[in-house]
Write a structure and sequence with these properties.
With 199 residues, the chain is α/β, with parallel strands linked by helices. The protein has one domain: Alpha-Beta Complex (Maf protein). It is 30% helix and 22% strand. It has 5 helices and 6 strands; from the N terminus they run βαβαβαβββαα. The chain has a 6-stranded mixed β-sheet. Helix 1 crosses helix 5.
């Protein structure tokens, strides 16, 4: 079975490849493999809506079953921010470091019990059966009061798992990938494909 992973993020692609490589009958394609350079505007108001928009769009472009993923960080005391805007929080001009600094500033008056947060990953698959397939993975934790670690990317240096005191950026990439929200959503998605005998 040929499947398109509709992302240009190499980290995401590698996570999919590691989990899907159990079945030699599955061949994963990237957007660049199929010479698809079109962008799609993410106009949804939820992770599910944005994942579906991307999966629909690239399924129509490619003609093969397509998987898209939308993910981000939700901080409870900030009303779920940055949420679906995680990659562009604070404006398009900010980089990862500036976005983490912005969150640390917004959270500076909250003590540890009130710094709860979660990473969320939602996958949408189109073209596998009549209806869309969705799966979701969560990684629960809290926001640290300062950055830690040099691994990972995005908000990893300020996010810590519950019952731990070191950030995700202090873990190796392999350690993080074993527990990540994306790993959980990919695992769930694959289980659906196996249960429904699609793969």
């Amino acid at each position: 079975m040929n499947i398109l992973i509709a992302t240009t993020n190499n980290g995401k692609l590698n996570e999919f490849k590691k989990i899907f490589n159990f079945n030699k009958n599955i061949k994963l394609f990237t957007l660049s493999d199929l010479s698809i350079n079109d962008d799609v505007e993410e106009t949804g108001k939820t992770f599910e809506e944005n994942a579906a928009i991307k999966a629909d769009f690239y399924y129509r472009k490619s003609g093969i079953p397509t998987i898209s993923e939308d993910s981000g960080l939700e901080i409870f005391k900030l009303g779920g921010e940055p949420g679906i805007y995680s990659a562009r929080y604070g404006g398009e001009g900010l980089n990862d470091l500036e976005r983490t600094e912005l969150i640390l500033e917004k959270m500076k008056d909250f003590q540890t019990p009130y710094r709860g947060a979660q990473f969320i990953s939602v996958i949408c698959g189109v073209g596998f059966k009549k209806e869309k397939i969705f799966s979701k993975g969560l990684l629960k934790g809290y926001i640290l009061d300062k950055k830690q670690g040099l691994n990972g990317f995005g908000y990893d240096p300020i996010f810590c798992l519950n019952n731990e005191n070191l950030s995700l950026a202090c873990k190796s990439i392999d350690e993080k990938n074993q527990i990540s929200h994306r790993r959980k959503s990919i695992d769930k998605f694959l289980k659906i494909l196996i249960k429904d005998r699609i793969v």
